[in-house]
Amino acid sequence: MLEAHDITLGYRPGVSVLRGVSLQLAAGEWLGLSGASGSGKSTLGRALAGHHTLRSGSLQLDGAPLPRHGLHPVQWLPQVPELAVNPRWRIGRILAEAWTPDAALRQRFGIGDDWLERYPHELSGGELQRVAVLRSLAPGVRYLIADEISSMLDAITQAELWQTLAEVAEQRDLGVLVIGHDRALLKRLCQRRLWLENGQLCAEA
Amino acid sequence: MSATPSPRLALRGNPRLGLALGTLTLLVALVALLIVTPQLAERAGASDFQARLLAPTTDYWFGTDVLGRDLLARTLQGLALSLWVGAAAALLGTLIALGLAALACLDRRADAVVGLLVDSVLGLPHLILLMLIAFALGGGTQAVIIAVALTHWPSLTRVLRAELLQLQQADYVRLSRRFGKSRGFVIWHHLLPALLPHCLVGGLLLFPHAILHEAALTFLGFGLSPGQPAIGVLLAESMRYLSAGYWWLGVFPGLGLLLLVLAFDRLGNALRRLLTPHEAQQ
């Protein structure tokens, strides 16, 4: 169980982006998070993956603090995959930074062998997003924070990506926090949905 | 998505690669010529009073100076000296810039101190500062190298600091740490390769600047000693004879300096494009 207890954080002194946010995400659970632009959704997602220092509150995994070193069990997937990969590295090296998925799994994500020798700018946004998703599925990862990962994709690519991710998540009992504006998508994917407003979780949508 | 050519294929047909290789060949040839010609120093210093102030001929391609010395040999020696001074000053300046940029990224106080230093040096008149440092250090090759290096780091420091700050916040750098990679791995595999093109290009663009300032300092009498056949010395000497019609005394050393500076400027710009995969394939 991934738990956030009363977390508060901000970027500028005296201004808090998240104010006393608490949530729980169980293994294998799909949780939806939506809210207006600027409400703090991405900040919450990054915080859960250990990208921010909290002003107060705590994050726990199965009752213990999240590890500070080694592979982080909570991985964050950004909306823009181009920013998530080193532009000077080839795709093969980008994947290998986290782990080495076998050819069968690469195939399930539609990642061909010839892609491994390409640079990120030689792939489309959708193709690169699949690479970023596969990279985040390293053994040892237990929760994924999917931060509007399909908002830039066409409907067919979206469906394929979510379908593959759902299958892998089920096999590995991964908990997934889906951040997005598309309520219909969140309703279809997630068992529970939360609404964030001005840095506070208001009520279940 | 349609298939795109591999980077190697794209580079093969890249006209900028040809340009960079051409410039590099020119520089290598120049350096090789200056290093492997054993008689150059002897020839540059040998006086022939029967051949004073000769215009360019088949025996003396660049003509001779007032002491009957071969101006071609002296120009090439001057360019060799400029190359060493420029390379040393550019390398030292780049290292200072890299060190201060890394220091600025440690914390806010260090950043403020580095920012103040950069603004202070940029706010002072460039040439006067150069002359003061060279004078304080007693002149000579070392003094010129130190003076040029100490006055040419601020702009590059600004570029490298901004780049480092941006890189530290980059998603792929943060994610690398979340994949369990050490700080050393991130610095070695993400930060330094991203900074390397900036350092190389910055250093290479410092190079012509350093050469020009060395020549200017020497021309003004604060740089290399008059006994050394530096380009600045040759140009300063030529000033006395230009009005009398001895044009070759100034034109050839000046042209040599101009070509050297242009070659490094071109090489810097070509390298900048070649070291970034995205730009290299455009």
Question: If you had to describe this structure to a student in words, what would you say it looks like?
Answer:
- The complex is a heterodimer of chains A (205) and B (282).
- Chain A has helices at residues 41-48, 91-98, 103-108, 125-135, 155-172, 183-189; strands spanning 2-9, 18-25, 30-35, 56-61, 64-65, 74-77, 143-147, 175-179, 192-197, 200-204.
- Chain A is of the alpha/beta class and 205 residues long.
- Chain A has a single domain (2-84, 137-203), classed as 3-Layer(aba) Sandwich (Rossmann fold).
- In chain A, strands 6-7-8-3-9-10 form a six-stranded mixed β-sheet, with helices on both faces.
- In chain A, strand 1 and strand 2 form a beta hairpin.
- The two termini of chain A are 21 Å apart.
- In chain A, 40% of the residues are buried.
- The mean pLDDT of chain A is 91.
- With 282 residues, chain B is mostly helical.
- Chain B has a single domain (66-275), classed as Orthogonal Bundle (MetI-like fold).
- Chain B has 13 helices and no strands.
- Chain B has helices at residues 7-12, 15-36, 40-45, 71-104, 108-123, 126-136, 140-151, 154-169, 171-178, 183-220, 231-242, 248-274, 277-280.
- The longest helix of chain B has 38 residues, at 183-220.
- The radius of gyration of chain B is 23 Å and the shape is elongated.
- Residues 1-11 of chain B have low confidence and may be disordered.
- The A-B interface holds A 49-51, 69-72, 75-76, 78, 83-88, 97-98, 117-119, 121-124, 127, 138 and B 1, 4, 6-7, 170-172, 174-176, 178-181, 190, 193-194, 276-278, 281.
- Chain A: Belongs to the ABC transporter superfamily.
- Chain A: InterPro entries: AAA+_ATPase (IPR003593), ABC_transp_ATP-bind (IPR050319), ABC_transporter-like_ATP-bd (IPR003439), ABC_transporter-like_CS (IPR017871), P-loop_NTPase (IPR027417).
- Chain A: Residues 2-205 form the ABC transporter domain.
- Chain A: Pfam families: ABC_tran.
- Chain A: One of its GO terms (molecular function) is ATP binding.
